[in-house]
């Protein structure tokens, strides 16, 4: 609902080319799941603010035609702030993947100066609508009264507020890993002359774990395999040249599947995340579909390989570093 309603409005006013901004604002609804509403309000508000700041920063890069070094500095800023905020407020997912995705896509879309504010307002409106939808369960539970325990599930997740996260060496180690990974993957993608080099960057951020999480190579493998299968699904949808309504339906199903599966099995979730991401990118800047699909597979493999190298390096550091007794 959070993503479909704004896209329908854009179709009605003839501005489906603004779909990316509505979609990223709607991704606010991916946060706060299974949290009590007193905590969810904080989580969703923080997530919405991060999404909108990332979107606005991407817009500023696009309208000024920022040079590559400036784009890279902006990317490193989004990664650093995203990890610090996620660690401080206990966001799930704990990586800055959606913030990075919003920044990179919006930075790549040609933007005339006169349209910066309208495009930003589309994102703000979509985020506000997503916030209201995400919090609407509170009203339904109040309406149900004593029957709410029978009608609705428990809300057990209570994210911890950790103001000291900014001084946590593990948090800064994760930031350093992400920074090294995106710089290496992005440079390799550009040197190879692959189109859409930001996919390699997004793949690294998606694979690397949040602070204090296990460094697992299987996550990178799931990322690559899941993306290849997701690209196959996307090809079946995009290659026939479907109508805009079919594309909106694909985005809706993709967002739904991503939210259901992202915390259960990463590879399975990518069967939905990949069509979602590619369809949003296709609406934002239509390109030849075969090239889009090939770029996605090649750059995901490249980003996944870089992430595996960083995971192995992190394991080596942990193995040879000082040992502390288990708590």
Automatic annotation (TrEMBL):
Domain Integral membrane bound transporter: 184-310
Keywords: Membrane, Transmembrane, Transmembrane helix
Membrane-spanning ranges: 46-63, 120-140, 182-208, 220-238, 244-262, 269-294, 300-318
Compartment(s): Membrane
Superkingdom of this protein's organism: Bacteria
Any one cellular-component term (Gene Ontology): membrane
Pfam families on file: FUSC_2
Membrane topology, as annotated: Multi-pass membrane protein
Protein's name according to its UniProt entry: FUSC family protein
Lineage: Bacteria, Bacillati, Actinomycetota, Actinomycetes, Micrococcales
